[in-house]
Amino acid sequence: MPPTDRVRDHAGQGATTVAAHRARRRLRADRARQLADLLRHQLLTGGFPTDTLPHESILAGDYRASRNTVRQALDLLRAEGLVERQPGVGTVVVARKYRHGLDRLMGLAETLHEHGRVTNEVRTAGPAPAPAPVAERLQVPPGTDVLYIERLRRLAGLPLSLDLTYIPLDIGTALLGADLENTDVFRLLETITGRPLGHAEITLEAVTADAHSAAVLEAPRGTAVLMLERLTHLADGRPVDLEFIRFRGDRITMSGLLHRSH
Questions:
Q1: How far from 3 is each of 7, 11, 12, CA to CA, in Å?
Q2: Mean pLDDT of the chain
Q3: Which segments of the chain does DSSP mark as H helices, in order?
Q4: Lowest-pLDDT range, 23-27, 60-64, 75-79, 145-149?
Q5: d(Cα 55, Cα 91) in Å, to the nearest integer?
Q6: Nearest Cα to 110, choosing from 197, 235, 231?
C-alpha cells in the first residue's frame, strides 16, 4: 500500500473512532436524561419517604443502568436544585415542587391548601387604561379603565408566583375594598357578581424572567419561569379576569387528568 493510502486509511479509522466515541457519549447522556426524568417523578410524588435516595448501586440495579449513568442522572437533578450530596448520608432531597392542577378551575390557595397558607402581597391595585390586547380579550373598548392588580404570592413564606391581573372596572371597583391579601380573586369575583365562574382559556409556556420579576420572586436573573396566561369567564360566558402568572419553576409543577374524546 502506498504511504499516502496508509495515511488516508489511518485518518479514516481515526474519524470512525471519534464518531463512535461521540455516539457512545450521546447514548450515555440520553440514558442519564431518561433516568433523571424517572427519578424526578419519584422525588416530586414522595417516592422517597425518608428524603434520602437509595445508594447508587441500588438505583443502578433497580433501573438497569450503569453506575456512570446513575451519577450523570443525579448530577442533572443536582443542577436543578432538587437534590444534594451529603457526606456520610448520600443523596438527599433538598427542594419540593408543589402540584398545581390544570384540570379544575381553582385559585392558588384552593389548589395548594394542603401544603400551607398562601398569602398575597398586593404590590399594585388600581384603575389603569386597558392596553388594546387586554381590552379585546375582556371585551371592553380600548383605553377603557380596568382594574390592574399585581400580587406576589407566597406559600409558607416562600415566593411562589407573581400575578398580573386585569378585571373590568364595573366588577373590579368592588375588589378594591376586599381582602386581596388573604383571599383568592376567584372567590371574590363569585361573591361580588353573585354568579359562579364557568371556564377559562389557558396557555402555559416557559419564559425568561425579566429583572423585575426575578427580583420580586427572589430568583436568579435570567432564570426560566413558568408563565400561565389565563382568561376566566363567568358561567354566562362573560370574560372577567385576564391573568399573567409567573411561577418559580423550581417550586411548582403542573399536573392534570386528560380524557381522550371520541
A1: 6, 12, 14
A2: 87
A3: 3-44, 56-62, 67-79, 108-111, 132-138, 169-175, 185-193, 211-217
A4: 23-27
A5: 8
A6: 197
Of 25-29, 63-67, 75-79, 121-125, the range with the lowest mean pLDDT is 25-29
Residue matched to cell numbers 381582602: 179
Model pLDDT, residue 5: 58
Residue 27: phi, psi to the nearest 5? -65, -40
Torsion of CA 160, 166, 169, 171, to 10 degrees: -60
| Strand partners of residue 152 | 121, 162
Q: Which grid cell sits at 36? A: 433523571
Q: How far is CA 71 from the centre of its chain?
A: 25
CB 172 within 8 A of CB 146: yes
Q: Mean per-residue pLDDT for 63-89?
A: 90
**Which pTM value belongs to this model?**
0.76
Burial label for 222, CB within 10 Å (0-12, 13-18, 19+), is exposed
Terminal Cα-to-Cα distance of the chain (whole angstroms): 68
- Segment (H or E) for 122: strand 118-129
> pLDDT tens digit string along 98-131?
888 888 888 887 877 777 788 899 999 999 999 9
Contact, 56 vs 67, CB < 8 A?
Answer: yes
